[in-house]
From TrEMBL:
Entry-linked InterPro entries: PDZ (IPR001478), PDZ_6 (IPR041489), PDZ_sf (IPR036034)
Source species, domain of life: Bacteria
Organism from which the protein derives: Sphingobium yanoikuyae ATCC 51230
UniProt name for this protein: PDZ domain-containing protein
SMART domains named among the record's database cross-references: PDZ
Positions of the PDZ domain: 53-104
Pfam families according to UniProt: PDZ_6
């Protein structure tokens, strides 16, 4: 019995199609994340990666905390259960109202482990996060 022939042209086209689909899906995911951040009133232009695996922006109105605008899908923040759109309102029990305040707290306190107070869909929860990346 003869082995089936593989059409190299068809295989190449299939792989190109899959790569294109992956690129389109990642672009669509980015737009969804960005739109979700806009829905939470956070697209102010200033953002920072103060904690491993996630990016934060000032929430609107000003002084109401920070919002998670992006994160590494397999990073420490994702493993801790943090999601894009979550509002960061406390670090180690200290209320956080802005990026500047969060940066000042993190600069003054060298804690390796942090307890973050997050608001997600009107529920506040506490999440433990290691400060050092993987």
């Amino acid at each position: 019995m003869e082995a089936p022939r593989i059409d190299k042209t068809a295989t190449s086209r299939l792989l190109i199609g899959l790569a294109l689909c992956a690129a389109l899906m990642s672009g669509a995911f980015f737009l969804h994340v960005r739109r979700d951040a806009e829905d939470h009133g956070s697209v102010s232009g200033a953002s920072a990666q103060l904690l491993p695996g996630l990016t934060l922006e000032n929430a609107e109105p000003a002084g109401t905390g920070l919002i998670v605008t992006s994160m590494e899908s397999s990073g420490p923040a994702a493993r801790a259960g943090i999601a894009v759109g979550d509002d960061l309102i406390r670090i180690d029990g200290t209320p956080i109202a802005s990026l500047d305040q969060a940066n000042a707290y993190l600069s003054q306190h060298g804690n390796a482990h942090l307890i973050l107070g997050l608001r997600h869909q009107d529920a506040v929860r506490m999440v433990a996060l290691d400060r050092s990346p993987d």
